[in-house]
Amino acid sequence: MIQAIKFTSPDKHEKQFVVDLRKRVNDYFKLNHISPKANTAMVLKTIVLICSYLVPFALLLLMPMNDWMALGLTVVMGFGIAGIGMGVMHDACHGAYSRKNWVNQLLAGSLYLLGSNVLNWKIQHNVLHHTYTNLSGLDEDIDDKGPIRLSENKALKWYHRYQFVYAFAFYGLMTLTMLTNDFTRLYKYHKAGLVKSQNKKMALEFTKMMLRKIVYLSVIFGLPLWLTNFSIGQIFIGFFIMHWTASIILSFVFQMAHVVEGAEQPAVDNLIPTEWSVHQLHTTSDFARNNKFITWYVGGLNFQIEHHLFPNICHIHYQQLAPIVEQTAKEYGIYYNLKPSFSSALLSHIHRLKELGRVSPN
User: pLDDT tens digits, residue range 267-311?
Assistant: First the structure.
């Protein structure tokens, strides 16, 4: 079973911060008479993002084209996959897209477009990452990624000194490794009792995952082999480039939210002497809040603080909530970690990789 961690602070100041923040956010929706779920703009965005993946794939299958045009379309598909993952699937898996469960389940299934598994995502992301943010051994987002050390509480190796250079090559493998790692991860979650905690049966979930992956690979490889003149080698290259593009984008966005300067990585203990909401502020960062395109494309994940505090609220509202959260944190003297631009967040992540490659674990 996963280690039981309790977040509680003896500081009444922190407790009052949580009460006031929740009230102010709830008041925002009540006073403006709006739902915290998706709106028309979100629905239109969903259609655009899904089409950004499916339309290029249809063009590849139905239109004669040269290799360079096909290569460009695989890159567009990679952008589409990342956009769907961040801007559609993510909200749906949190139940933030709609008040109707079937809508959330349907759109959460867009994860199958990556060949991955919804149950694994919900356990890894919703349960482990959101509950135990930046706690080594519990939050898998800061587990070592091959030769990349993302936690100061993990063992330091000599080669980590160079990880700020080579990390980005490995980031491009994220969604590709999910294709196979999903099986070992599901078994790991089963052994930890997490599959049962989701009211799921291991044998059935394993079978469904296997069948979905077979369907995914049959479509993504089978249709081009049947309907186009591209060789199996060319299709493999396109498949790799598509996933590489999606992985680089997803990795950058995920890492710039939690593995940056100012984002704490507390040592794991049975008792964390901080209120859970305050812990989220201590371990999370926003970035590029004024960049409208980034905010639109990454599904509001540049408002990561707001997302961690209110994961059941659709990201379409985060831009309006951020000033409320920031002002409340300021009033209570709680640090609000904000990187003003994409480039500043990326540089901060690179600096953090350097630190993690040279600083001994606590």
Answer: 887 888 999 999 999 999 999 999 999 999 999 999 999 999 999
Q: pLDDT digit string (tens) for 130-156? A: 999 999 889 999 998 889 999 999 999
CA distance 89 to 51: 14
Among 179, 15, 186, smallest CA distance to 112 is for 179
- Whether 191 is covered by a domain: the verdict is no
The answer to whether residue 216 is domain-embedded is no
For the stretch 73-116, pLDDT in tens is 999 999 999 999 999 999 999 999 999 999 999 999 999 988 89
pLDDT at 267: 86
What's the rounded Cα separation, in Å, for the pair 347 and 261? 10
Beta carbons of 133 and 283 less than 8 angstroms apart:
yes
**328 found inside a domain:** yes
User: Do residues 90 and 122 touch, judged by C-beta distance below 8 A?
Assistant: no
Tokens of 146: 């091959």
Closest Cα partner for 149 from 132, 166, 129?
Answer: 166
Q: Give 74's contacts (C-beta < 8 A, 6+ positions apart).
A: 56, 60, 238, 239, 241, 242, 245
How many domains would you assign to the chain? Answer: 1
For 112, the domain range is 6-180+232-356
Tell me the average pLDDT across 25-35. 97
Q: Does residue 211 fall inside a structural domain? A: no
**Confidence bin at 361 (pLDDT 50/70/90):** very low
3-class DSSP assignment, residue 7: strand
Please name which of 242, 342, 354 lies closest in space to residue 301, comparing C-alpha atoms: 342
**Residue-wise DSSP of 72-116:** HHHHHHHHHHHHHIIIIIHHHHTT-S-SSHHHHHHHHGGGGGGT-
Q: Confirm if 274 and 288 have CB atoms less than 8 A apart.
A: no
**Do 107 and 318 contact (CB within 8 A), yes or no?**
no
